[in-house]
Design brief:
Distance between the termini: 46 Å
Strand content: 25-35%
Bound molecules: adenosine monophosphate, glycine
Radius of gyration: 21 Å
Helix content: 25-40%
Largest sheet: 9 strands, antiparallel
CATH architecture of the largest domain: 2-Layer Sandwich
Number of domains: 4
Shape: globular
Length: about 425
């Protein structure tokens, strides 16, 4: 099979790595890819907003499957264009991608289907939202309805915070169109779990695994929200029976409901759940693989990744009896540039990457690097992902830290407490 992966981050590096392991993978391309991805796939430097150019490339290179990494091309309808031209795609169409693009869209479905989620109200103007916030108890959560690169959720401790959040959305236009509608919801307390399920074009749902991300920049879950500073999989407290039960409660009804509305959801269904003392609740849905969760999941996967992605696209996931894993657990730790998620330096030298001693359980995925005169430079906020698989999270984390200690990058920062919930310090 000739495969094209869309994207250029750590998630796509891991996806390319996984796909490349398949005996059924002939030619592997990544668009736009990166210098590090070029070591395993042909990077095709192009403007990924130019969907016609992507289609042309697929036709000329006889691409059998396109795997779309990030949410943006999905919400822009790249799948629709490719599928209309008889190209198989891993990822939902534009209507399916509304689950991630609009929090209101997802919350309204939850309400209709009686799926547990925080109580909420929706506003499209400052005045009504402000009056509503005056009569609420705090904390309260204010969310820009649309895509805001992970920054659109504001936890408000006081009415003053709520006012600031509403000013950001409605007056300062900080989130652009994404903030012209806000969802205001009840603050829930509990452990967060990400549930990853594959969905095929016939609506068959195959729960894949669970993971836990660490969104805050600082240890102890403090500081600003980031795209994710590290993750492990599976979540020790969620048995596979429990995972299947969660998928039946939170994933299957939504996929079925969409089908009844004429929306054939396919691809990855990433349900962000929070386990409250009254039971699990849905926080959000993403319509793609998680980043950095994927950099832990793929090293652990023994079943052929390409087979799974292809089965989603052609509608044969029901034939996959059991997903096999290489080891018990996996973790990935993100190395970010100092200052991220605010201002940080770019193009700083990262030394010694070529000389790391890596075993077959160790993985290095590049999230934001580039090569200049044969030297690796940082080229983004989240820069490297170091992953390891093993029998227990503590040893896995120690191994990852040992690898990080070999990396000579002055600007590098990482959280040392990834996995704290399940590691005795
Ligand atoms: P979301 O993008 O909706 O998942 O929100 C990002 C993060 O904000 C989540 O991972 C939670 O940590 C937090 N969050 C979102 N909604 C709530 C809520 N209703 N109660 C508590 N925390 C929330
Ligand atoms: N790691 C969070 C996300 O992919 O949205």
């Amino acid at each position: 099979m000739n495969v094209l992966v869309i994207g250029n981050g750590g998630r796509e590096h891991a996806l390319c790595y996984g796909i490349k392991q398949s005996p059924n993978c002939s030619n592997l391309y990544c668009m736009p890819g990166s210098d590090s991805i070029s070591e395993i796939a042909s990077s095709i430097i192009t403007d990924v907003d130019d969907h016609d150019a992507i289609l042309q490339f697929c036709l000329e290179n006889k691409i059998d499957l396109v795997v779309i990494g990030p949410e943006l091309p999905l919400t822009q309808g790249l799948s629709n264009l490719l599928m209309n031209n008889a190209i198989l795609v891993f990822g939902p169409d534009q209507m399916g991608a509304e689950l991630e693009k609009s929090k209101k869209f997802t919350k309204d479905i939850c309400k209709k289907l009686h799926i547990a989620t925080a109580a909420y109200d929706v506003f499209d103007n400052y005045d009504d939202a402000f009056i509503f916030c005056q009569n609420q108890s705090y904390p309260l959560v204010i969310k820009a309805d649309g895509l805001a690169a992970g920054k659109g959720v504001i936890i408000c401790q006081t009415m003053e915070d709520a006012k600031d959040a509403l000013i950001k959305c409605f007056k300062d236009n900080s989130f652009g169109d994404a903030g012209s509608v806000v969802v205001i919801e009840e603050f829930l307390v509990g452990e967060e779990v990400s549930l990853f399920s594959l969905v095929d074009k016939n609506g068959f749902v195959l729960p894949l695994t669970t993971a836990q991300d660490h969104k805050k920049i600082l240890e102890g879950e403090k500081g600003l929200n980031t795209g994710g500073m590290g993750a492990y999989t599976p979540v020790p407290s969620i048995s596979s029976n429990k995972m299947n039960e969660l998928s039946k409660t939170f994933v299957e009804p939504i996929v079925q409901h969409l089908a009844e509305q004429g929306i054939k959801y396919q691809g990855m269904f990433y349900a962000g759940l929070i386990l409250t003392d009254k039971g699990p609740n849905l926080l959000e849905i993403n319509v793609r693989f998680g980043d950095p969760e994927t950099q832990a999941i793929i090293p652990l996967l023994e079943t052929d990744l390409l087979e799974l992605l292809h089965a989603s696209a052609i509608g044969t996931l029901n034939e996959i009896k059991k997903i096999k894993w290489k080891n018990d657990y996996a973790m990935t730790v993100v190395m970010a540039a100092h200052g991220y998620p605010e201002d940080y330096k770019k193009l700083t030298p990262i030394n010694n990457l070529e000389n790391l001693t890596l075993t077959t359980d160790d993985y290095l995925f590049h999230a934001g690097t580039m090569l200049k005169e044969n030297k690796w430079l940082s080229n983004g906020g989240r820069v490297l992902n170091i992953s390891n698989t093993g029998k227990d999270l503590k040893t896995i984390r120690e191994t990852i830290h040992n690898i990080i200690n070999q990396i000579n990058w002055d600007e590098g920062y990482y959280r040392k407490d990834i996995g704290w919930r399940y590691i005795d310090e």
